[in-house]
Write the structure tokens for this entry.
Amino acid sequence: MKDTTPRMVFLKDYVPPAWRVSRVELDFQLDPARTRVRSRMSLARTGAGDQPLMLHGQDLTLVALSVDGRPLPAGAWRQEGEQLWVQDLPDRCELTVETEIHPDRNTALEGLYVSGGNFCTQCEAEGFRRITWFPDRPDVMAEYRVRMEADKATCPVLLSNGNLVDSGDLPEGRHYAVWHDPFPKPSYLFALVAGDLACQEGHFVTCSGREVALRIFVQHHNLDKCDHAMRSLIKAMRWDEDTFGREYDLDTYMIVAVDDFNMGAMENKGLNIFNSKYVLARPDTATDEDFVAIESVIAHEYFHNWSGNRVTCRDWFQLSLKEGLTVFRDQEFTADQSLRTVKRIDDVQRLRSLQFPEDTGPMAHPVRPQSYMEINNFYTMTVYEKGAEVVRMIQTLLGRDLFRRGLDLYFDRHDGQAVTTDDFLRAMEDAAARDLSRFRRWYDQAGTPVLNVTGAYDAGARRFRLTVRQSCPPTPGQAEKLPLHIPLAVALLDRAGREIPLRLEGEAAAGGGERVLELTAPDHVFVFEEVHEPPVPSLLRDFSAPVTLRYPYTDEELAFLMAGDTDGFNRWEAGQQYAVRVLLRLVEDHQAGRPLVMEPRFVESVGQVLTHTAVDPALVAEALTLPGESYLADHMRVADVDAIHTARQFARRAMGEQLAVRWRETYERHSATDAHSLEADAMGRRRLANLALAYLVAANPVEGRSLAHRQFRDARNMSETMGALRALMDCACDERDAALAAFEARWKDEPLVLDKWFSLQAASSVPGALQRVRGLMAHPGFNMRNPNRVRALIGAFVTANPVHFHAADGSGYDFLAEQVLSLDPLNPQVAARLVKALSRWKRFDKPRQAAMRAALERIVETSGLSRDVYEITSRSLE
Ligand code: B3K
Ligand code: ZN
């Protein structure tokens, strides 16, 4: 059992390791029920003194312990929970530990476990300690040699990090393989795979002419779904050379897809292990979003080879050092493969709908947290997505060239080391000769900063004054906030929508039309000269900082920006702000019992976007998608999920009805797109056609449904199938039931496809959602031990079905508490993710608050909770 005593780990308590491990030799006798692991570590004391050696271990049966070949006497070591202390060791020695583990009983999916009959591992963050006793911390980097033995019939494939150096047959149907990884690495990057897998081969020639063998391993029946992953990997490798000068370093690069996996994928050196969701795709099984997600995750894990593996983290507080930087890199990669503005919009939407809420909840933490109870709880949107925004701001402040120079210096200076976010910033400062001391606060301060901006035009002096005040709301443990260094990209637009050349007071001549203003103090006033007419400011262009910006635009100004801002991101942003306003007015009307009326000017603005054939279809689709229900809820003092749902549905219907002719034209124009092209343009057309279909269904249920039914029946790929199903999902009708039944019959043996079917139903707003979800838990395709299934069904219900999850009778909350408690003993990581859906209870009305609290209390009072669930639940109740 995992030790569940609450403990806190603090960044301020960091001490370097007292012992180094230069080499490890691991020997695995693989057996699902009982695996023997022998580990021989070459140890050296790092400093003076006689500090004992400390090893981590969890759920291990210790079989033997010896030093330099001699068994350790009983008094020379002691075990306290998950720590083992060895006293009086010579300054240099070889320590051998033998343990026994039970992969087939490992449902937590950390350490060595069995998935689909194959062995695989997951060691980040602290999973290696479930394999053997070891200083399981990222600043202990060692060279690994791994020997494994297994049954040849069930495990013909034996893999580990690095290069294969030996293999052969053994008596009794067993065989062995030996792998050596020449790059010293922390234990969290260790990986082992053994099983019966098929392999797709590819190859890559690096910029210096080295040949790299690429191998993707999957279960045999999935071999026809690997082409896209292979193409994505090759693209990513080329792109990282071209864009950041990063070359791959081993002779092979392997990816293994497994069905049971807690997260998306893992960047183990030379042997990535992936959730099969981010590898497998065929046009009939995967949507365009799936194809894009696969390309991006494959790239992300590949990019970690430099940002994470060659240069790694000193301790887990530095997690964003590798994650924020690597997310930034994968975002840039995707932007280069598609439409940059669309990618930026998608990323900002993700940040605002998932990270901003984190910043206002009980788990709010800085990009570099100062403490944790369970590190697995800190693989968060803040560490990943806000971390990426922080890196992006550095690029904005330094400019692309200096940023690139800074990155080169960082990789060069720290290759082979375990370092900190401060080291990263120092490399940037040194390369660019800039002082980023105030900027550093982004790493230490939690919360989403707010920029209150006002503008005043002085016609006589032809001046425009922009006043900017920054503030940041308090977060748990951080009542007072300091001003941050914020890049604010701005332009001033004249009546014709042109950028006015910018000249700040005191400057000799006007520069270009866009400027990055640097905020460092609580208040700033910027005076622009020679402004010949009252301008409309375009602020925070391309979302130049992860902040909330408030400017008192009129509706007319928003409509103007929506139609013609020269910054593509801000065109979308103006439309969103306008939509939020219109929808919140509808919410108020609904709450006050007034009849709902759609604002004609808004519909007109939307209609104009729809007629703009020159704009990319994907951008049109972005612009015409109304803000989501939870994003709207974040704009209310007390979230009213029912009123929001009603208002949004009303707006969709009104927009559908009033623009029906144009939706119809749009649908017809774009639904004829080449069915198999994965070019950005084709994907954009499909997205827009599906959006048009959804509006047509909202506007005219009878006609719309038959259109959707036809699309479902004639679908040429999964994007068309899902577009039709999504359009039907919120109406209780025969077409919906028939389509769901047909989908299930066709895909019941493809778990990843069936997940879509689970999610659609879990997120549907038609009455009886909870009953359906409960019913689906008994479906033969559902399995509580599989994280993808849990997320597809239970996860989708609690995150994507606000009306039913927040049902006034509290039934959704009771259901979640029940599921968390039954999942926690099996898989704490996944259980802890689910419980977060209850954490922002303060956002709701009193009766819901009480019901959510009661659910949290029921969880926290249960004995034997994992640290993962305990931390989130108890902090939510504070
Ligand atoms: N580094 C892994 C995440 C590990 C999560 C551990 N709970 C995947 C990634 O970010 O690339
Ligand atoms: Zn990552």
Notes: Residues 568-591 form the longest helix (24 residues).
